[in-house]
Amino acid sequence: MAQFVEIKLIPRSPLVLSQSRNNQMLSSLEYVSGSTLRGAFAALYQSVNGMDGDFQKIFSASNRFPYLFLSQSGQTAFPFPKTAYSCKRYNGFETEVDKNGRNHHGVVDLLFLEALKGTCHRGKESLSFQNYFDSSYRCSVCHEDRKPLQGYFLENRQVKLFKGQRTHVGIDRWSGTARPQILYFLEFVQLPDQSSDYCLRGVGRWEEKAFEKLKELEHYPLFLGKSRTRGYGECSWQLQIQNPPSLDAFEQTLESFSKEAAEYCKVQKERWIFSLTVQTPTILVDAFLRYTAQEKEILRWLGLEAAELLYSYSELQPVWGWNMAHGMPKEEEWAIAPSSVYLCSARRSKENLKRLHHIHHQGIGLRQEEGFGQVWISHSFHVQYAVKKEENNG
Questions:
Q1: Which domains does the chain have, with CATH numbers?
Q2: pTM assigned to the model
Q3: Which parts of 61-181 fold into alpha helices (H)?
Q4: Rounded to the nearest 5 degrees, what angle is found at the Cα of 326, between the Cα atoms of 324 and 327?
Q5: CA atoms within 13 A on the CB side of 240
Q6: How many CB atoms lie within 10 A of CB 86?
Q7: Which residues contact 32 (CB under 8 A, 6 or more apart)?
Q8: What is the per-residue pLDDT across 25-71, written as a single tens digit (0 to 9) for each?
C-alpha cells in the first residue's frame, strides 16, 4: 500500500546541484530535484545491499521521489507565482526590511486582476477598469513600476539558500597533474543558517516495502550532486510517515478560494474556481506525444467534468534526467516551468473534488516518479496578496 513519506535532508557539506550539462561553469540550483534524490538513494542502497531483488521495485515508477525545497519549522518554501509582483526599487513583503532599515513596499498577486481583464467592459466602465488595471502595475507607495518577483517565499518573507563559488584547477588527463591555465568554477549552496532548524524537505509517495528498506539505511550519510569526491554533497537525512491528506480539509480550502475568486473576477459562483500553480517542472504531451502547454491539453490532463480555462501565464523549459536502465543521460524534454499559473473553473461534483484532491497531492503529467508535475491547487497566496482596488485609486 502506498503512503506519503516526508523526506528531510540536512547538508553537512556544500551542495553542487548543477542546472545544465556545461562542464566549465557549474551554476547550482536552489533545490534538490527528484531525479537527483532518486539517484542518490539508489547509489546508497546499491552500495549497502547490492542489486538485490528489491532494488528494481524500490526505484520503479510506483514510488515518487519528490523535489526538496528549503524548509523551516515544518513550512516548505514555495516559488513565487509568475503573477506575483513587487516594487522595482524596494521589492519584497512589507514585513521585510532592507540593510538600511527601510521597509519593502509589499507584494501583490495579479492573477485575479488578469482574469477579470478578460471580462467584457464597455463605455465608461471600460475606461475606469483600464485605469485601475494600469495603476495596479505601479507601486502604491512610490508609484514606480512593479516587476515580477522571482525566488521562493515562506509565509511572508523571501528565503534562499546561501550561494558561494570556488575555483579549481583542471587536471591533465595524461599526466594526472595540475594543468596550467585550465580552470573551472563550481557554484555551491548551503543552508542560510547552519545553527537553525532549516533543512531541505519534500513529501513523496512510496510503497510500504520501499519505505521499510530505505528507513533501514537512515544512519548512513547520503551523497548527492556534483563533485562528491571533492567533499561536496554529504547529507544526513530522515524519513517519516505522513497522515493521508484529508479530503474534507481540501474541500474547505477549495470552497474558500472559489468564493473569493468568483467575487473578484465576477464569474458564476455555481462553479468551482481554482488555481493550479506549478511547483516543479511539469511534462505534458498531446495525443501525438508532442510536448505541450496548450489550453485544450491542460484541460485534457486535468480530466475534470465541464472544465474551462479562465487565464494562464506559463512558460516552457528544458529538463533532463538519467536513464537507469541504460545508464545514460536522457534526451532533453520540455516541461511547463515552475511558477506557471492557471486559473480554471469546473462543475461542482464529487468526482471533480476527488480528482483535484488527487492532482494536488500526487501531481500531474509524465515522470512523476522523479518529482515532476508537483502542483498546488488553490494556493492561498493568490487570495491573500490579490491586488486591492482601493490601493491604487488615489
A1: 2-78+158-242 (3.30.70), 81-149+247-394 (2.60.40.4350)
A2: 0.89
A3: 111-117, 123-135
A4: 60
A5: 10
A6: 23
A7: 9, 15, 17, 67, 68, 200, 202, 224, 225
A8: 567 889 999 999 999 999 999 999 998 989 999 998 889 999 999 99
